[in-house]
Design goal:
By secondary structure, the chain is α+β, with helices and mostly antiparallel strands. The protein contains nine helices and 19 strands. The strands form six sheets. A five-stranded antiparallel β-sheet has the order 1-4-5-11-10. The protein has a four-stranded mixed β-sheet with strand order 3-2-13-12, covered by helices on one side. Strands 6-7-8-9 form a four-stranded mixed β-sheet, with helices on one face. Helix 7 crosses helix 9.
Length: 415
């Protein structure tokens, strides 16, 4: 097969130019066909895209479906790349050309395939050497300012005001703002009861946050990106005050000795600042994820894994893909839950990178090496605020973001 250089081929999605990082896969021309990177276009349209190297499958989950069912592959057919859309295998006519994995480890597909795979209109603009993608509202994102299409119930109005994500009974994730465009008749009785439970859980937290300087902001507006508010000394003083309580809990509830808390405050603040991420809140998230670094879940202290990366409930096989992450900084071992990072610094940076992936669509800052093996699995920019991590970072995670802010961060700010 003869490949033409992909340099100068651009991607435009719904009128916006997509910047492909220099170290990532650009479109290319192969045997006279234009091939495009499936992940970049899929995530640009709001889909979740995952590569499973063991079965050579590209798993695409649209926000409108949420289905993550994956069909098994018959023996002898795993040399080809298979594309699965919302649990269904995409049939690609032979004359279209077939998906393939490039030397950069990225899946590219023939241009004609993208339209059928993602339900969008895709055109090749020969004059400008541009792949022009126009969505057909496959992944609709309703505007908060749009008028509801039908009168919404008081329940839905109250949930929408929280501007959060909700995990539905069918497994999909919905923005609470979308409920303004629905009526209760659109949902089952069981789903309505779950919505009521969610509202009860959300109402336990205040809707605003008062900062030390007296500024009051909506909790839903507190962004992942931004400057830290708490200093390292405050974070350390807060942990010192919590230590007697945690020590007693470990003895009484877990029958275990207290694990000394590692000194990570400066690392979180420094590395967070390099990415424009609020390192103090990331530190508080780590405290929540690790139970104050006592690791009462499946992840172990030696892993330097402070946010549960790749801890899915099942032990690793050791064959998990690094997805471009530096193998000197992260690895997997059979029987161990989650990724293992080479040092505390690597573990903190992987955590910050994962937040960065959720918070924005920008490439890594100049000079940075990928440490997070799940960075490329995130729907980039899907959670710009801490509250938008609800039902994404944690499932169902109805008040996950609120808890980080109110139960941890605000307490640290009092020191």
């Amino acid at each position: 097969m003869q490949a033409a250089a992909g340099g100068g081929i651009g991607i435009v999605i719904d009128g916006k130019t997509v910047t492909v990082p220099l170290d990532d896969q650009a479109p290319l021309i192969l045997d006279g066909r234009t091939y495009v990177p499936l992940r970049i276009i899929g995530e640009g349209l709001g889909a979740k895209v995952e590569w499973r190297s063991a079965t050579r499958q590209v798993i695409i989950t649209t926000f409108s479906s949420g289905s993550e069912a994956v069909p098994s592959r018959p023996p002898g057919r795993q040399n080809d790349v298979q594309i699965v859309i919302d649990g269904r295998v995409l049939a690609i006519p032979p004359d279209y050309g077939q998906p393939l994995v490039t030397r950069l480890g990225r899946t590219v597909v023939p241009l004609r395939t993208v339209g059928e795979a993602l339900g969008c209109e895709v055109n090749w603009r020969k004059e400008s050497r541009t792949v022009d993608v126009k969505s057909r509202l496959t992944f609709p994102v309703p505007s908060r300012d749009a008028e509801p299409s039908a009168p919404s119930s008081t329940l839905f109005q109250e949930l929408a005001a929280y501007r959060t994500n909700l995990k539905l009974l069918d497994g999909s994730v919905s923005s609470s703002a979308e409920l303004l465009h629905k009526s209760e008749a659109d949902f089952s009785t069981q789903q309505i009861e779950q919505f009521k439970t969610y509202l009860s859980q959300l109402s336990k937290y205040p809707s605003t946050v008062k900062l030390p300087d007296g500024t009051v902001i909506a909790m839903a507006d507190l962004t992942i990106q931004g400057p830290a508010v708490a200093a390292a000394g405050q974070l350390k003083a807060w942990l010192a005050a919590e230590t007697p309580r945690i020590r007693a809990k470990m003895a009484q509830q877990y029958g275990r000795e207290f694990v000394p808390i590692p000194d990570l405050a400066e690392l979180y603040l420094c590395i967070g600042a390099e990415y424009g991420i609020r390192g103090d809140l990331a530190f508080c998230q780590a405290a929540k994820e690790t139970h104050y670094w006592q690791f009462t879940g499946s992840v172990q202290p030696f892993q330097n894994n402070y946010c549960g990366l790749w801890a899915t409930g099942s032990p690793c096989t050791g064959q998990e893909p690094l997805n471009g992450a530096d193998p000197q900084l992260v690895r997997f071992e059979p029987g161990i839950h989650g990724a293992i990072f080479a040092s505390p610094e690597a573990g903190v940076e992987a955590h910050i990178q994962h937040l960065y992936a959720y918070a924005c669509r920008n490439p890594l800052p100049p000079g940075k090496v990928l440490v997070d093996p799940r960075y490329n699995l995130v729907a980039r920019g899907s959670a710009p605020t801490w509250q938008k991590l609800n039902a994404r970072w944690a499932v169902p995670g109805t008040t996950y973001g609120q808890s980080i802010i109110y139960d941890y961060w605000l307490k640290a700010l009092t020191f």
